[in-house]
Amino acid sequence: REMNGSYSMQGVEPDKGTKCRESFKFVSEVKRDVWKEIGEERSEPTCSLSVSKISYTVSERLGPWWDLPSYRKRWTRQILNDVSFHVDSGQIMGILGNSGSGKTTLLDAISGRIGNSGTLLGDVFINGRKLKREEYQDCFSYVLQSDNLLSYLTVEETLTYTAQLALRKHSAEAIKKKVSAVMAELSLTHVAHSVIGGRVFPGISGGERRRVSIASQLLQDPRVILLDEPTTSLDSMTANQIVVLLAQLARRNRIVIVTIHQPRSELFRVFSRIAIMSCGKLVFCGQPEEMVDFFSQCGYECPEYCNPFDIYVDFTSVDTRNSEREAATFNRMHEITSAYQRSAIYQSMLEKVEQNLQQTDKPAIPFKSKESPNGAAKLEVLLRRTVRNLSRDRMGVLMRLSQNLIYGLFVAFFVMHLDNDITKGAIQDRIGIIYQSIAASPYTGMLNAVALFPALRAIGDQESQDGLYSKWQMFLAYIFHILPFSILSVIIFTSFLYWTIGMNPDSVRFLCFSAVVLVPHITGELLTVVLLGVVQDPNMVNTGVALLNIAGILVGSGFLRSTQQMPEVFQWLSYLTFQKYSCELLIVTEFHGLNFTCTPLLPLPGACVITGGDQIIEQGYPGALSRYTLDFVLLYSFLPALLLLGIISFKIRDKVIRH
Ligand SMILES: Nc1ncnc2c1ncn2[C@@H]1O[C@H](COP(=O)(O)OP(=O)(O)OP(=O)(O)O)[C@@H](O)[C@H]1O
User: How many domains does the chain have?
Assistant: First the structure.
């Protein structure tokens, strides 16, 4: 980009040296202000969180499934081992540790997001009361490692929709005020009307996106906020700003627990507590100053000019590069852990946990603000949100509307004009057009779903864990929001193809043709989304839907082989395919009452035996004419059936997916 202009300080344009000195002075002053703000006296804690003896064990299969003896054997792995700590409101606790040490799993365990794949032991107490499993979600706000936000919404819209989902009973005015307050608290007011942005188009910065994710959680006034690596992939200055901001949030009577990789040494004073994890164990948990003394007493001094965070994480990490290093580093970690468990810091932490449990005047559990659920209202907000997001995606909308038309152009170019002379392909061309209309439509729907839905699914996974709505509601919102686009796309396609190549020129037949082609198109998208509920990998779903479509065409359409000539089992199976009904309907729509001409090149006997379209119907699809209405009903019944399957699929997802 081109940049013009200059700047002046007190009316004078500074030379290079002055600029450096002044900017250094400026940075130092800002920093001092930040420390002043964080260092404010805080009020008496009103909320305390105690985590007592959390352990999590998973069992894994040893071998691949084709090696049955080893596959049968399982080995258990302890991911979290007897983790206990205590935090009061007003404090920010940083959890450090090398990759795989169990930081994320600890946050998942505390917030009740651990799936059913392992055994979780231990308890979480808030204000001296043991939390029930179903209460975890209502108590903690959890900011995931990745920002799952809709790219085309502005910051203000993103927060407003979240507030409408979370605080449904509030008036529009109250929600507006709440959103403005949260934006002000997280310094987002200046980007309120900027779009979030994504991989393909620019939007707000990475740090601002992180702050939007945190702001979404703050809308429900949580007293306890958990953040999984909120500084990942941010530059060190922005990462610092985020941690300082979190410290400020904690100062306002909240508990903030944050996992973090490589914090800068200046953040040493920002954290109220530091926990270091290694191999699922809490190797140390205490105040930053206590950490330095503790490690020095263990004989592991932090060398001068080194970042204590990095050094202590190194001291406690197990190096698995070779067995010798592994044994040595494991022993060191074990030695430090034992020293911590013998230390006064550990004993005083256990006492605090005990005190918390024995508190007589126990304040109420500080649940997040939540309103009684109203399914229709949530669905309406979700629908508005997805429609607004898609409507801003001009390229996406254009592609959706034009993809069938582009396909229609290919077909029209190939066929040019249908002839009524059977020696000039009157039957073959018509059957070809019907085949193409039914067989290709599901693919365009499938491609749309695979491109758009996984991102929405990630958002739905997170927000349903936050208790905003259920995953199946997000599924319904997605399907309803694509319906108008699908209908329009199919109408554009059929209007072009039908009249350009000269299919049966009757407006009722045209409407029937469009209505039939719509179902395979929507079914392709619907089936893909249904499978994406239970299958995580979109590529697998792609392959699965493509194979199902091919099987449906083979068994149901009767194009390759007449249904009557197929084995009985396939004949029964054909009733389960939408291709059977759509094919019969299109054959009748096009061929019924159609008269053919015949001008054979050679006067061969039987060359002109077919004179009308009804002969085609009776030979290939006997009884299809009398089943016309029934076929329509059966074809359209696939849509509610798939909607129901989708709801079941996303209810299963609720149970099996960790986030
Ligand atoms: N359900 C599970 N089944 C098997 N292993 C698991 C499961 N959950 C976690 N683990 C394993 O537990 C270990 C700790 O994982 P976790 O994600 O908590 O680490 P982390 O400290 O957050 O790592 P990072 O900093 O890289 O995100 C990893 O080795 C991970 O593979």
Answer: 2
